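DNA starvation/stationary phase protection protein, Orrella daihaiensis. Tokens?
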Amino acid sequence: MAKKLTATAKAPPINIGISAKDRAAVASELSKMLADSYTLYMMTHNFHWNVEGPMFNTLHAMFMTQYTEQWTALDDIAERIRALGHYAPGTYADYAKLSSIREPKAVPEATDMIRLLVQGNEAVAKTARTALNQADQANDQPSADLLTQRLDVHEKNAWMLRSLLR
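Tokens:
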């Protein structure tokens, strides 16, 4: 008779060819990326709701496109952290501690919204570059691929937003 497996069986250790130390280092940088990305998402969504002025339709639609894309990316980043064997940060307190982006205290004018979003996208790009270097050092291609894709998005968003200020 076959032995019955119990529900108390432990999961085997992660063995994906990246050391525990390197997985922790990449997960730490990805956590900062998640915090910056979430903060930028919130700011973009806030500005979508509250933008006013002659560029309302353009900015309202552009902000919605950007925050919708960012929302999907949050899940990808968090799931990569989990795949590396670490918990993803998921509270406002975590994000406030980890994020390099500071949100405005009040609702800014439309052109200031654009400037803040340029700065926010550039901040996320800088955070992604640091995380990408860590992923490259760890030979972590899935994280590097994710971060390269995020760099492309945030650099393009910054360019498009900046173009509105010329």
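The chain has one domain: 20-163.
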